[in-house]
Amino acid sequence: MGIDKQSDVAANLQIGPTSLGMVRIYVEGEGVDLPLDFDPDEAEEIAEELRAAAAQARAMGTGKGPKKR
Q: What is the pLDDT of residue 69?
């Protein structure tokens, strides 16, 4: 599966700090139990990449629109 392919796979995503000062992204789904630990600088880089991708998706009009608050 590529980054630009639709998927029907569902998973839970949790993000938070660990007791060792790392940032954990935890993915859990059917047959998947994946803890990913990053140092804080790496986590900030990932956050920037997520924001950039969200902005690109919005500009393409493929997102679900602005989130109502």
A: 47
What is the CA 24 to chain-centroid distance, rounded? 11
Report DSSP letters for the chain, one per residue.
Answer: --TTS-----EEEEEEE-TTS-EEEEEEETTEEEEEEE-HHHHHHHHHHHHHHHHHHHHHT-S--PPP-
Q: For the chain, how far is it from start to end, CA to CA, in angstroms?
A: 33
pTM for this structure?
0.73
Q: Which residue has the tokens 């839970």?
A: 12
What's the token pair of residue 44?
């900030």
